[in-house]
Design goal:
single chain; 145 residues; 57% strand
């Protein structure tokens, strides 16, 4: 007779893994490079990822990191929508690039970070005065009225 596992003197039932939906794949400690026209646009890393082939999405979690050129995005969760080419990050997003450090609750962007939109509470830190002035000049809109 097979032995049954116990915990605190009580029998423990074995869990059966649920079958994955059709077209869904799970990866541990994945590394993914997103390429356009033969060149790497972005590199993704995380502790865990789920690829949904039918929806065309990749869900990175457990410390996701994205490197785009000289910029690095770090967030607990990053979703990449392959069809639309959009990337969203949630839960304490950090972006570091050339002396500028951004923190926000969320981020929506293309994989190249050219059209980055930060959501929620946003903090911006610059390493020196020249970088801060250039950042303010590039992101200041004239007030109407």
């Amino acid at each position: 007779m097979a032995e049954q596992a116990t915990q605190n003197g009580k029998p423990v039932r074995k869990r059966r893994p649920r079958p994955l939906p059709e077209g869904v794949r799970i990866y541990r400690a994945p590394r993914m490079s997103l390429m356009r026209m033969g060149k790497v646009v972005a590199e993704f890393r995380s502790g865990y990822a789920t690829l949904d082939v039918n929806a065309g999405t990749v869900h990175f979690e457990r410390g996701a990191q994205v490197k785009v050129g000289g910029a690095k995005v770090t967030a607990p969760v990053v979703d990449l929508h392959l069809v639309s080419g959009r990337m969203t990050a949630e839960g304490g997003v950090r972006v570091d690039e050339e002396g500028i450090h951004l923190e926000a609750d969320g981020l929506t962007s293309g994989p190249s970070l050219a059209t980055m939109k930060l959501d929620g509470k946003v903090n911006v830190k610059a390493k020196d005065k020249a970088v801060a002035e250039a950042l303010l000049k590039a992101n200041t809109r004239p007030q109407s009225g």
